[in-house]
Structures are given as C-alpha cells and as structure tokens.
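User: I'm writing a tutorial on reading structure tokens. Could you give me a worked example: one chain, its sequence, then its tokens, then a sentence or two explaining what the tokens reveal?
Assistant: Sure. Here is the example chain.
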Amino acid sequence: MSPITEVEGRRLALSNLDKVLYPATGTTKGEVLHYYATTADAFLPHLRDRPVSFLRYPDGPDGQLFFTKNPPQGTPDWVRTVEVSRTEGQLARQVIVQDLPTLIWAANLVVEFHTPQWLDPESGVADRLVLDLDPGAPAGVAECCVVALWLRERLAADGIESYAKTSGSKGMHLLAALEPTPSEEVSAYAKRLALEAQEALGELVVHRMTRALRPGKVFVDFSQNAAAKTTAAPYTLRAKSEPTVSAPVTWDEVDAGREAPGRLVFRAADIGVRLERYGDLLAPLVDPDHAHPLPGA
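And here are its predicted structure tokens:
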C-alpha cells in the first residue's frame, strides 16, 4: 500500500519512494519528491497559471518516456485544470500547478514540467520571450554561451533585459518578460533575432531546424514562442542519466562557461545551495514591473 502523507491539508498517496530513478547517482523517487518540495518556493511562481505539459518517466529515464498534456487518469478533483484550445479549434483540459500539494502530486507521477509562454489560454497573448539554444555536436554548452552573450547584448539594444538558464540537457535557454503581446508577433521578433545572430556569428549559428545544417553549430530555436509550444520550466528535473536541472545561471557564469562549460551542469543536489546564495535568479520574469514592450508592438 502506498504511504499517505498530508501536504497543506491535502492527503496524497505517494508510491515507490525507494525506487531508484537515476541509477548513475542512485537517486530515488523519494529524493525527487524531496527536491521538488524544497525548491517549491522558487519553482511554483514559474508554473502558476500556466497549463502544464508533462514528460513522464515513471521507471526512470531509461524506461518508457511519454509526453502528455491531458490530466492523468486518477487526477484528484482538487487539482485545478483549465480549458485550452488545441488544433482545429478542439478544446481540452490541462493541469495548472498552483500550490505545493499539486506540485507533489504531479512529481509523484515522475515528470518533467513544461509550460507555454502565455497565461491566458483564450488570448494567445504571450508575456514571455524564449530563445532555445540547441548545440549540434561537436558544439556544446561553450558555444551556447558565446551565442547567449551575443543575444543578451542584442536584446539589450532593444531595451529588453534577458535571463539565462541551462536546459538541463545539452543547451541553454534565454528568457525575457514581456508586456502582453500576441504570440505571432513574439515569434516573428524571435525569428529576426535568430537570423541576425546567424549573420553576425557566421559559422557558429543556424536558425533552421534542418538536422543536416546543425553539426558544429548552435540552433537558435525561436519556434517555442508559438502559442502551441512549450519549454522546460525553470527548476524542472530532466529525464537524463543523472538528475540534472534546468537551472537559472548568472551572466558571469555564462561568460565563464565559454572556457569551463562543465560548471554549467547542475544536479538536484546543487539547487538548494544556489537558492541560498542567489535566490531565484529568474524572479523578474514573474514580476510585472520587469515586463518590456516588444519593439514595434
């Protein structure tokens, strides 16, 4: 029988807490739940009011992985959901993670958390810009750092302050808070930035997804600004061989990452110390006072 615990007045059945999910580090499911519980104060603001998509890996990253947007079977009635428009005008429901009980309930399913760049499912209006830097081998994090620093300066030229995080996989994400702007306009602006980066950085950047173009280059993926797309949320664990985290980083760390990219790999055990030292480096993303107008909008 699964142990029952109470989280802020909600009773939760937590299963298989001793199961090893990350054999490389011996990390158990119980430790995964502890990670999410102890990072919740920083994590929840980046999930709140955004319909969540889940990448589930209940038997660890070496087992079955499946991506779902629908509320899982057996979702408690106290878990909030919201109606979201899908393709061809179809409506469906998705979970929104508003509080600690919902976060722990979802984490018990063993998930990566992915969110869109908007809050209102009816409007398609974005409040956030994201640029996903995806390196093609032999390029890696060091090359992503070079591109990220260029994009930071380019965004600053338009009056937009940007923030960086690791993807928790092999690349990086740049994010900025926006005043409400139609997703189509944000996507068009992000594409212009990708094209400019390709022109400015020559052989280092590609703006097209075509696999044959990407070896040795950093793909600046602007497409995740589309209303239908999602990006790995800040602080989510990733389904990798180790419990790596999509972790916020300072620009000094990005600068140093050009020479020492290994320092930009963060695991679950690292995040508590970083939060004590820096707080939430991405807090401005959820502060309306830090939202920027999109140029020309």
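What the tokens reveal: The chain has a mean pLDDT of 93. The longest strand covers residues 125-135.
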